Amino acid sequence: ENDLKTIYNMLNRPFFMSAKFSEYIYTNIITSFTQQGKQGLFIDYLKRIKDDPDFSDSLKRAIIEACGVRNVVAAGQTIRDYFITFSSVSDMKITCLRALGELGGDGILGVFKLGLNDEDWRVRAVAAKGASCCPQSLIIKDLRNALHDENYHVRINAALSIARFGDKGYKLLKRAANSGDRFVRDVSNYVLKELSYRA
Hints:
Elements: H1 3-11, H2 19-35, H3 39-49, H4 57-69, H5 76-85, H6 90-103, H7 108-116, H8 121-130, H9 136-146, H10 152-163, H11 167-176, H12 182-198
């Protein structure tokens, strides 16, 4: 555990390697803590650094991404806390949504609903892409609304998430394919066509 500060000092140098490199380092750290039965200590560390202004946001994001990659389900609540604390930082919200999409679990619905209504289309697009991890009956209306989004990436991700809901999603897309909204119609037909190719 004491090595975390040394590693942070190395990774926090300006222009040192890349964000992906930092994520890779932290996935290895998480693996080590988990193998020693000390995953809880790492989650405590993630909690402690959240409000530390000297700890760069890029490294915080790398750790959150690593939690998603290593499926650290127990970190879900802490990652949701990051999403709320950094509600004005799009990059952090995107990272949290990606990680929570991998982790699933209770409590993610509210975060994805917020993400689908974010003012930044990039946040909405990531939320739409991962929203199928939420309970179908509770998120389907939000995804249906996202089919009308002004941004193409949000619309296509919403349609793809709806498709992951199986028969109910397929029927919803069939109805949307006859929408009076040309953009909804186009994206729904595109996804339906893709599904028919894969069948």
